[in-house]
User: Which sequence fits this backbone?
C-alpha cells in the first residue's frame, strides 16, 4: 500500500510527539511493506507566527492531496491574547469544517498497568472500554447567528437531518464492530434539536437490528460516566455535549496522556491527534509522552487505511512496553526511572 | 418570624420525603419560635392527573402568595409517553421561568461518614466543598427560535447583559461568604455568548476585590471535577453547562441522596428541592431517604428567611445522625439495619 500523510506538528510538545509517531509509522511501513509518504505543514500558533493564519492555504492544499492527516497539538500562552481569528484553535475548527470531518472518535479504555493513576476506584474503572462518537462540524460550534454586542449575545444550535443521520450511522456501525450497544445522548426533555436527534435514532434502529440502542439525557450521562463508566460501549452525541462528555471520560481511567482521537468523514479521510494538549510547560525538554500520538497513528492505519493488523501491532506494542514498566515522566512512579520521549519510542520500535 | 411556605410534593417519593421535611420545619418553628404556615399544591405528574396541566394556575397563585416553595420531585414512567406540554418536567421549567428563579444553588460537600460510597478515591474527595451556581432561566432552555421539523432543528442560546450580570453577582456574593474563589465556566474559545459572559465577569471583578476569580473552559471543568474537585469553591456558569456540571458534581462524593438545591431570585423568594429524582421504583414503600429534602429546608431557612442559626441546627443534626450510624436503605451497609424514612427523621427530630 502507498499512502500520503500530511503531518502538522503544531505547537508546544506537538513537534516532539509527532516526530516519534512518524518514526513508528515508518517502522510499520518497513515491517508490513507499505510506503507512507510524509509531508509537513503549519497549523495553529506555528502557522500564525509564519503566515499570520492558523490554517494557511498551503496547509489546506497539502491536506487535500493527502490520504490522512497527523496532528500534534495547538495552542500556548504566546497566542492567548490574540483576537479570536488569530487563535491557534481556530486552525483546528477550520480544518474540521473545511474537510467536513464530522465524526470525532474518542476511545477510552482502562489500561491495567496504569489503573492506579485513576482518580476513581479500581473496581469502577477496570472494565472500562468505550468509544465516544462526537458530531464535530455542526451544532452550537458553527450555527448562525452567532454574535455578541455589549448588551446581548446569541449562539445557534442547528442540525439538519443529514448531519444527524450520518453521525448516528457512524455510532451504529462502530457498535457493530464492538460490543453492540449504542447510548445516544441528548437533552430531549428540553431541546428541539434533541427531539429530532432522538427521532432519527429511533428510525435508524431498524437498520441495525443487531445493535442495542438506548437514549440517555446528557446530565444523566455525565453522572453515569463516573458512577458506572463500564456500562458504556458506544456513546453518540452532538458536538457540544460530545466536547464535554469526551473530556470528562478522558480522565476517568487515569490515562489521559495515552488517549488518541480520530476525526473522519465518510470517504476515509481523517485527522488523527492525541487528546492531550500542547503542554507548553514541558515543551522542548524531550520528556513528553508520545503514546497518545503513536496510538493516533494506529487509529489512522485502521480507520483511514483499513490496516487492522498493523494498527493492532502498535496497540500491542504500547501495552507491552507499559506492562514491562517503561514510562515517561508523566506516568513514572516517584522512585522509578523515567524514559525520555525518544527512549520510550525506542522501546516501541524494538517491540515492532 | 411568620412565613408562608407553598408545599408541592409532586410525584414518586416526593410526597414521602416532603412530609418528613415539613415535620422538621415545624420542629424548627417550635424550637426557635417561628410560625411557618404550610399550604399544599399540585405540580408535575400529580397535577397532570388532576388538572391536565403540570403547573396549574392554582399552584401559581399559591406560590405567589408564599414566601418560599418546598418541592419534592416530579416525573415517572406513567407520563413518559405524554406530549411534551404534558410532561411533569414542564411544570419545573414553567415554575422557574414564571417566578424568575434565575439562580440555582447546588452545594456539594464530602460527608466524612459516607465517603466510602464515593466512586472516587477518598484522598481525591475528602476535602470537597463547593457550590455550583447555575443560571436557570436563560440560554438554550428558553431561547427562541426553538423548533424542529422532520428535516432540521434549531435551538437558540441567548443571554442579555442583565441576565449574565445578576447570576455573576450571585456567584461573587456567595464566594465572599465561603472561601472567596469563583471559577467562571464558559466556552469562550467557541461561543459568542461565552465571550460576553467572560467580559462581564472581568468587569465585575473590580466590585469584589476580596474574591479571587478565574475562567475555565467547560470541557476542562468537566475534567477537573474528577481529577481535583477539592480545587473548586464557587462555580458560576450558564444554564446548559450548569445542568451537566452540577449533575456530574453530584455523584463525586457518593452522597447524591443527600444533596439539596435552591432556585432563587433577588427578592428572596426561592424554590427548594432535593437534587435526586422521584425514584418511582421505591415510591410508597416508606424507605426513601429524606435527607436531601430536609437539607433543602435548611437552605430555605438560610436563603429565603435569613435564619442562619436554624439552618445550621438542621445541618448539624443531619451530620450527627449519620455519624451515629443511622442510615436509610440507600446508604446502609449490607450488614446494617436500615431505618425507614420516618424513623430516620425521628432521629433528626430528637437531635433538634
Ligand atoms: C480547542 C477547542 C475549540 C476544541 C473543541 O471544543 O472542539 C477542543 O476542546 C476539542 O475538544 O478538540
Ligand atoms: C428535568 C430537567 C428539565 C431539569 C433541567 O435540565 O434543568 C433537571 O435536569 C434539573 O437539572 O433540574
Assistant:
Amino acid at each position: 500500500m502507498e499512502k500520503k500523510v500530511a503531518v502538522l506538528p503544531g505547537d508546544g510538545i506537538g513537534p516532539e510527539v509527532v516526530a516519534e509517531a512518524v518514526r513508528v509509522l515508518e517502522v510499520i511501513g518497513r515491517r508490513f511493506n507499505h510506503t507512507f509518504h510524509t509531508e509537513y505543514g503549519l497549523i495553529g500558533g506555528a502557522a500564525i507566527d509564519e503566515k499570520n493564519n492558523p490554517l494557511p492555504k498551503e496547509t489546506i492544499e497539502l491536506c487535500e492531496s493527502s490520504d490522512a492527516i497527523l496532528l500534534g497539538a495547538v495552542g500556548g500562552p504566546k497566542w492567548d491574547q490574540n483576537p479570536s481569528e488569530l487563535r491557534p484553535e481556530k486552525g483546528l475548527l477550520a480544518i474540521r469544517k473545511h474537510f467536513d470531518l464530522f465524526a470525532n472518535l474518542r476511545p477510552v479504555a482502562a489500561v491495567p498497568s496504569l489503573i492506579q493513576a485513576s482518580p476513581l476506584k479500581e473496581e469502577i474503572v477496570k472494565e472500562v472500554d468505550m468509544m465516544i462518537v462526537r458530531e464535530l462540524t455542526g451544532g452550537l460550534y458553527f450555527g448562525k447567528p452567532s454574535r455578541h454586542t455589549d448588551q446581548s449575545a446569541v449562539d445557534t444550535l442547528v442540525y439538519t437531518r443529514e448531519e444527524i443521520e450520518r453521525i448516528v450511522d457512524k455510532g451504529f456501525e462502530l457498535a457493530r464492530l464492538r460490543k453492540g450497544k449504542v447510548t445516544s445522548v441528548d437533552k430531549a426533555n428540553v431541546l428541539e434539536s434533541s427531539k429530532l436527534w432522538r427521532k432519527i435514532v429511533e428510525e435508524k434502529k431498524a437498520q441495525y437490528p443487531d445493535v442495542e440502542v438506548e437514549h440517555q439525557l446528557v446530565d444523566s450521562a455525565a453522572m453515569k460516566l463516573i458512577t458506572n463508566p463500564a456500562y458504556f460501549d458506544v456513546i453518540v452525541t452532538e458536538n457540544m455535549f460530545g466536547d464535554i462528555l469526551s473530556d470528562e471520560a478522558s480522565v476517568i481511567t487515569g490515562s489521559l496522556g495515552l488517549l488518541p482521537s480520530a476525526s473522519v468523514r465518510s470517504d476515509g479521510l481523517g485527522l488523527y491527534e492525541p487528546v492531550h494538549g500542547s503542554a507548553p510547560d514541558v515543551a522542548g525538554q524531550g520528556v513528553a509522552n508520545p503514546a497518545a500520538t503513536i496510538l493516533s497513528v494506529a487509529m489512522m492505519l485502521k480507520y483511514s487505511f483499513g490496516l487492522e493488523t498493523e494498527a493492532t501491532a502498535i496497540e500491542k506494542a504500547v501495552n507491552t512496553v507499559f506492562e514491562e514498566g517503561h514510562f515517561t515522566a508523566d506516568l513514572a512512579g516517584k522512585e522509578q526511572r523515567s524514559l525520555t520521549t525518544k527512549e520510550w519510542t525506542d522501546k516501541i520500535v524494538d517491540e515492532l
